[in-house]
Structures are given as structure tokens and as C-alpha cells.
Amino acid sequence: MIKSIKALFIVASITALSACGWHFQNGTLIPQELRTLAFESSDPYSEMSVAMRNQLQANNVQLVNSTQGIPVLRINKFRTNDEVASVFKRGREAEKVLMLEVEASIRLANGESHPITAKVNRTFFDNSRAALAKSAERDVIWNDMREQAARQLITKMVALEKQVKNK
After folding, report:
1. Which residues form the signal peptide (predicted)?
2. Were 95 and a residue from 73, 80, 85, 165 both cysteine, which residue would form a disulfide, CB within 3.0 to 4.6 Å?
3. How far apart, in whole angstroms, are the C-alpha atoms of residue 102 and residue 81?
4. What is the pLDDT of residues 120-140, one digit of tens each?
5. What's the pLDDT band for 16 if we cut at 50, 70, 90?
6. CA distance readout (Å), 68 to 40, 46, 108
């Protein structure tokens, strides 16, 4: 009886949410001034640049060539690092902390340039018995970290635009 009531409640909730037009929307927080911008990077084909471009497009930002009067997002530098967090009894690495730091700048349409940064840290268990799985898992973690850093930069870019408007 309780299971059927729970199932009925879940179905009713899903139906109500889909019927009222409530949906997750990407890019609704991005102001109109930043919906069209130019993206620059010293290496436009690096994994970080690709992740940033994908996140911008996922948030309905139109990327155009750099011209006067259009905001420009530039990735100035990104650094990756890993440090040993713990060791096994025999002195081998057991766990690592993976770090990604991205330095970028946003030049607004009025010519003002503002630096923004994003830092992402993750722990990674370094299992020496599964070398191939370890490598694949590490790549997945790095890709996820780049996506998270790109989302952080977009959030900071939106917050910066709102701060500039309030001045």
C-alpha cells in the first residue's frame, strides 16, 4: 500500500512539473551583454579551451570573432599539478591531489579588463595494480576538472558583470 502511494506521488509530481512548464534552463543567468562574446586562448585547441568553449555553448553564448564593442573572454594561463597526499606502508604513492588552476580575463564592451580565476582540486587513489584503469580514470577526472573550472569561470564572469553594473 505504501509503495503504491509513493509511486503515485512520484508520478503526480513528475506530471505536475512537466505540465506547468518548469524545466531546467541553461544560460538564463547570463546577462544579454555577455550572450555574444569572443573567446581567445594562446592554444585554442587545448583541452581547457575546448572545455571552455563547450560550456559557453551549453549556456547559449554565441561565440564570434573578436571585434570592437564585443566582450572578450581570454584564457591567459592554466596550470595542472599533482601532489602526493598519502603513501602505502612500503613508501609508494597511495593517493594524490590533482590541482587545476585557470587564470582568465574578461574584457567588457566598454574596454575594462577584469581578471578571473578558477581553482579545482580532486583526490585520486593511485592503485598500482590497475595501471590501465588508473590512466583512464585519471583522464576522466582531469576532463571533469576542466569542465568544472569552465563552469566556475562562467559563474564568475556573470557575477563580475553584475558588480560592474552596480557601480
Report:
1. 1-18
2. 85
3. 12
4. 999 988 777 766 677 888 899
5. confident
6. 14, 26, 10
Q: Which three cell numbers stand for residue 130?
A: 590497475
Residue 9 located in a structural domain? no
Question: What's the Cα-to-Cα distance from 127 to each of 94, 130, 133, 142, rounded to whole Å?
Answer: 7, 6, 9, 17
CATH label of the domain that carries residue 35 = 3.30.160.150
DSSP 101-142: EEEEEEE-TTS-EEEEEEEEEEEEE--TT-HHHHHHHHHHHH
Residue 96 forms part of a structural domain: yes
What is the β-pairing status of strands 72-87 and 36-41?
A: parallel
Instruction: Look at the chain and report how many structural domains it folds into.
Output: 1
Whether 5 is covered by a domain: the verdict is no
- 43: containing domain: 30-166
Which residue is listed with cell 553594473? 165
